[in-house]
């Protein structure tokens, strides 16, 4: 098996290093990841400048672009083969509910999925990299034993609690929850007195009920959510056709 690994925290992030080490036990692994932290980059592609690809070691490349750039370049020009799997992460911090729309971690996996390749995004719930090797062991186990039954291509969003592998309660297959709207921007001034604005924290869970990723994580389980990328609001199709056709 050949696995392409990317992330949005940058190619030196401990989560990516742990994931690549773990998956190397069962696959030929190549890393193509951003040169710096691009968390929150969503699905952005860089169209206003060319991209540089640099080699940092055997089968490790970094790109001066976004997570989606990395996977896009890898699949359409850099690699001379088609990977069997694209894996993104392990992200520093959860990607649950509406986070998935902003996440560069999920975006890197989505880019693989858009090219028809099975793809998985892994995130660790709490920041700080505690128990990252346990999270990588969980990811390895999932890739090794759990994905062969899924119809391909698939796109999975996986969140892993920060705990010892043996303390994990298990796995719940979940739907995405929903968050309240984000907190307001934080206003300040730069040293020259110009106003500046920091984007505020994300909102708390609004739909964190049973069956959601939020609920599974709160109960001590890892969550696995199958994603799709069709944003069509199917229920409104007929209403709009009546009005405008
Ligand atoms: Mn990140």
User: Order of strands side by side in the largest beta sheet?
Assistant: 3-4-2-1-5-6-7-13-8
The average pLDDT score comes to 96
Low-pLDDT runs of 5+ residues are none
Structural class of the secondary structure composition?
alpha/beta
**Share of helical residues:** 25-40%
How many structural domains? 1
Q: Would you state the CATH class?
A: Alpha Beta
The value of Rg in angstroms is 19 Å
Our measurement of the CA-to-CA distance between the termini, rounded to an integer number of angstroms, reads 50 Å
Descriptive labels:
single chain; 245 residues; alpha/beta; Stationary-phase Survival Protein Sure Homolog, Chain: A; 9-stranded mixed beta sheet; two-stranded antiparallel ribbon; 7 helices; 13 strands; globular; binds manganese (II) ion
Topology:
Blueprint (H helix, E strand, L loop, with lengths): L1 E5 L7 H10 L4 E7 L18 E5 L2 E4 L3 H12 L6 E8 L6 H4 L1 H11 L4 E6 L7 H14 L9 E6 L10 E3 L4 E2 L6 E4 L5 E4 L6 E3 L5 H6 L3 E5 L7 H11 L1
Parallel strand pairs: 1-2, 1-5, 2-4, 5-6, 6-7, 8-13
Antiparallel strand pairs: 3-4, 7-13, 9-12, 10-11
The site of manganese (II) ion has 6 residues, from strand 5.
Task: Describe the structure in brief.
28% of the residues lie in helices and 25% in strands. It is α/β, with parallel strands linked by helices. The protein has one domain (2-177, 213-243): Survival protein SurE-like phosphatase/nucleotidase (Stationary-phase Survival Protein Sure Homolog, Chain: A, 3-Layer(aba) Sandwich).
């Amino acid at each position: 098996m050949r696995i392409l690994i990317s992330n949005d925290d940058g190619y030196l992030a401990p989560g990516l290093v742990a994931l690549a080490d773990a998956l190397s036990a069962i696959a030929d692994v190549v890393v193509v990841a951003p040169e710096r932290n691009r968390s929150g980059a969503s699905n952005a592609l860089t169209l206003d400048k060319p991209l540089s690809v640099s080699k940092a070691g055997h089968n490790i490349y970094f790109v001066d672009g976004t997570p989606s750039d990395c996977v896009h370049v890898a699949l359409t020009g850099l690699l001379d083969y088609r990977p069997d799997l694209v894996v993104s992460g392990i992200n520093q911090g959860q990607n649950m509910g509406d986070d998935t729309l902003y996440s560069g971690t999920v975006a890197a996996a989505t880019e693989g999925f858009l090219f028809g390749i099975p793809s998985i995004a892994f995130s660790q719930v709490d920041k700080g990299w505690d128990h990252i090797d346990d999270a990588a062991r969980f990811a390895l186990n999932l890739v090794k034993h759990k994905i062969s039954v899924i119809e391909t291509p698939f796109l999975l969003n996986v969140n892993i609690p920060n705990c010892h592998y043996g303390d994990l309660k298990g796995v719940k297959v979940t739907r995405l929850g929903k968050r309240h709207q984000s907190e307001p921007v934080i206003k300040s001034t730069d040293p020259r007195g110009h106003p500046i604005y920091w984007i505020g924290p994300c909102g708390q869970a609004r739909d964190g009920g049973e069956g959601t990723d939020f609920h599974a994580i709160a109960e001590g389980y890892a969550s696995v959510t199958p994603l799709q990328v069709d944003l069509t609001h199917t229920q409104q199709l007929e209403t709009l056709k009546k009005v405008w056709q």
